[in-house]
Amino acid sequence: MINFLIECFEKRQQKNSDMRTSFGIFAGVMGLLSNLLLFVSKLLIGLVSGSVSIMADAMNNLSDTVSSILTLVGFYIAGKPADKEHPYGHERFEYISGMLVSLLITFVGFQFFMTSIERIRDPQSIKVTPVILVVLLLSILVKVWQGIFYQRVAKKIDSNTLIATAKDSLNDVFTTIAVLLSATVEGMTGIKIDGFVGLLIACYIIFSGLQLIREFINELMGLRPDQEAIDEMKKYLSSVSDIIGYHDLLIHQYGPNKTFASVHIEIDDRWDLPHAHEKIDAIEKKFKEELGVELVCHIDPVNLHDQKQQFIHLEIKKIIKSIDKELRAHDIRLVEHGAKPRILFDLVVPTNFNATDQELRIRIQEQVYRSIGDYVTEITFDHIYLL
Fold first, then answer.
1. 232, 261 in Cβ contact below 8 A?
2. Model's pTM, two decimal places?
3. Using one digit for the tens of pLDDT, what is the confidence trace for 199-231?
4. What's the CATH fold of domain 306-387?
5. Which top CATH class is 2-221?
6. 52-78 vs 19-49: helix crossing angle, rounded to 10
7. From start to end of the chain, where are the E strands?
8. Taking each helix axis from N to C terminus, what angle separates 160-189 and 93-121, rounded to the nearest 10 degrees?
9. Following DSSP, what letter does each residue of 71-86 receive, concatenated?
10. In this structure, which CATH number among 3.30.1330.30, 3.30.70.1350, 1.10.3080.10, 2.40.160.60 belongs to the domain 224-303?
11. N- to C-terminal Cα distance for the chain?
């Protein structure tokens, strides 16, 4: 049923260029409708039967519509095109709506926690009439359907916001099951365990909510791209003919489908500008078409024909590797004008390296004096690049 619904919607949206936004809004609408259906049906049954617990559960479903509205609004705003105030688009708003859903989950968890503490202090009997039982079972079925539906759509469009909304739906299933379990145990043994079961469920809800909040905070702060995406970029850059190498790759994500990157491309310094421009243009175009990444390339000319420059280049590489195989040097160049000849280069230092920049500078300078001669080294330390 769920797969059929998703496939039908996908076929209807084939001509839509922004399939992700369409699916997100579709999921929000389906959640909103199903939560409103539960609210109306429970409220009517509660009014007819006079059951306060069913009417209270109806109000809970009304609050669940807030999550659906947040999801709906989040995807709607995220799908808006770039404008003057937001030149990189609005996709990050999806993370904000997901964060709000996560905060709502955590708030509900704390409310349930306090209610469970009160139930432990002052145990109350749970009376589940046949009408209430039917309503609760119906609620479980709808909420399970909701959770699975959100999860399937989340997997299809890779959305953490819908994962959070799915957890919100499944948390409602756990709380309803807790009521039924407590009522069953009380009916069979007379022991009132409602508060204790509720406390365990509340702790789980709070934990899941806090985990989601952390994930969305990381998304908003900026995470390292997944290794698969980095490997794809490396594979393509390594396959480009003519270029000598590449380094200083930076990747910025402004939403799930909005990725920008910059990289330094090493080329033979004998290339003329039109040829270099043509080669760089081709790399940027390929990244856009095949990887969906807006790439900006910086050209680093490398001297391949001067023997002295080549000797300096090889010796610096050897010195760096002798200190640590994880260190990488690039943009190595010799400047001989001035009071004293200088060797300039950038040094990429891996995370959590066990020596300070100053300690590395001293060790490298000492080895340069021994291996190359009386040259001053000027090192720029890089700590933030992926490649």
1. no
2. 0.73
3. 888 888 899 889 989 988 988 887 777 788 888
4. Alpha-Beta Plaits (3.30.70)
5. mainly alpha
6. 170
7. 245-253, 259-268, 293-302, 328-335, 342-348, 376-382
8. 10
9. HHHHHHHHTSPP-SS-
10. 3.30.70.1350
11. 45
- Model pLDDT for residues 77-90, shown as the tens digit of each residue: 988 888 888 888 88
Q: Please give the Cα distance from 360 to 103 (Å, whole number).
A: 45
- Residue given tokens 């001067």 in the structure block: 306
Per-domain boundaries in the chain: 2-221, 224-303, 306-387
Query: 51 pLDDT exceeds 60?
Result: no
Nearest to 179 by CA among 129, 142, 107: 129
Classify the C-alpha dihedral 359-365-367-369 as positive or negative.
negative
Q: Which residue(s) pair with 81 in the sheet?
A: none
Alpha carbons 335 and 305: distance in angstroms, whole number: 16
Which residues, in sequence order, are bridge partners of residue 272? Answer: none
CA distance 26 to 16: 13
Residue 84 phi/psi, 5-degree rounding, is: -60, -40
Residue 165, class by beta-carbon neighbours within 10 Å (0-12 exposed, 13-18 middle, 19+ buried)?
buried
Q: Do domains 224-303 and 306-387 have the same CATH topology?
A: yes
Report, in this order, helix, strand and coil percent for the chain, each rounded to 5: 65, 15, 25
Pair of tokens at residue 314: 């090889």
SS3 47: helix
- CA dihedral 247→253→258→261, nearest 10 degrees, is -10
Which of 67-81, 261-275, 283-297 is predicted least confidently? 67-81
Strands 328-335 and 376-382: unpaired
Phi, psi of 192, deg, nearest 5: -95, 100
